[in-house]
């Protein structure tokens, strides 16, 4: 990334944080930028594994993740394997109507299913059952099958 792009990315993130009433700290920036680069939900351990060598301790990573969840910028999900995973919230979707996820029951790998659209009739029948908080598909990923 060029220095100019880097500066612009920081300014953009600073604004996103400020809009939610969060102060921009080096650790918070690092966590947000990590999540922006990720293409699937990640665990605290996975995020910390990259950030601890940069001088941000595990507790700080977790505290920042929690702050971002409370501010509504990040979602925290438990996909049936008792592990919390974090991902940036899809701002284009209302809360509870975000993209679905596929989890491999063998290796635990999670894949975002951005293409899987729930039709209005499917959403309506789901709403008759209750409030949907997560759409989850389970199976064996290509590598495990
Ligand atoms: Zn797998
Ligand atoms: Zn996702």
| Name of the CATH architecture of the largest domain | Orthogonal Bundle
The CATH topology of the largest domain, please? Arc Repressor Mutant, subunit A
| Helix and strand pattern | HHEHHEEEEHE
What's the CATH class of the largest domain, please?
Mainly Alpha
Number of helices: 5
Number of E-type strands:
6
Q: Which segments are poorly predicted (pLDDT under 50) over 5 or more consecutive residues? A: none
Average pLDDT reading: 90
Strand content: 15-25%
Oligomeric category:
single chain
Envelope shape: globular
Each distinct ligand: zinc ion
**What Rg is obtained from the alpha carbons, in whole angstroms?**
17 Å
The percent range for helix content is 40-55%
Commentary on this structure:
The chain is α+β, with helices and mostly antiparallel strands. The protein has 2 domains: 1-89, Winged helix-like DNA-binding domain superfamily/Winged helix DNA-binding domain (Arc Repressor Mutant, subunit A, Orthogonal Bundle), CATH 1.10.10; 92-145, Dna Ligase, domain 1 (2-Layer Sandwich), CATH 3.30.1490. 41% of the residues lie in helices and 17% in strands. The protein has 5 helices and 6 strands. The chain has helices at residues 3-19, 26-37, 44-51, 58-70, 120-129; strands at residues 42-43, 74-78, 84-88, 100-104, 110-113, 136-139. The strands form 2 sheets. The protein has a 3-stranded antiparallel beta sheet. A 3-stranded mixed beta sheet has the order 5-4-6, with no helix packed on it. Helix 3 packs across helix 4. The longest helix is centred in the first third of the chain and has 17 residues, at 3-19. The N and C termini lie far apart (37 Å). The mean pLDDT is 90. Bound molecules: zinc ion (2 copies). One zinc ion is lined by residues 40-41, 87, 99, 101, 112. Residues 40-41, 87, 99, 101, 112 line the site of one zinc ion.
């Amino acid at each position: 990334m060029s220095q100019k792009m880097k500066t612009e990315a920081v300014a953009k993130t600073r604004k996103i944080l400020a809009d939610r009433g969060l102060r921009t700290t080096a650790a918070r920036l690092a966590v947000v930028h990590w999540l922006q680069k990720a293409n699937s939900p990640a665990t605290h351990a996975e995020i910390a594994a990259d950030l601890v060598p940069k001088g941000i301790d595990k507790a700080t990573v977790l505290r920042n993740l929690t702050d971002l969840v409370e501010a509504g910028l990040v979602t925290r999900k438990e996909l049936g394997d008792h592990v919390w995973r974090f991902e940036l919230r899809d701002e284009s979707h209302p809360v509870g109507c975000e993209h679905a996820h596929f989890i491999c029951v063998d290796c635990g790998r999670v894949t975002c299913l951005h293409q899987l659209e729930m039709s209005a009739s499917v959403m309506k029948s789901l709403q008759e059952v209750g409030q949907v908080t997560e759409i989850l598909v389970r199976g064996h990923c290509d590598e495990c099958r």
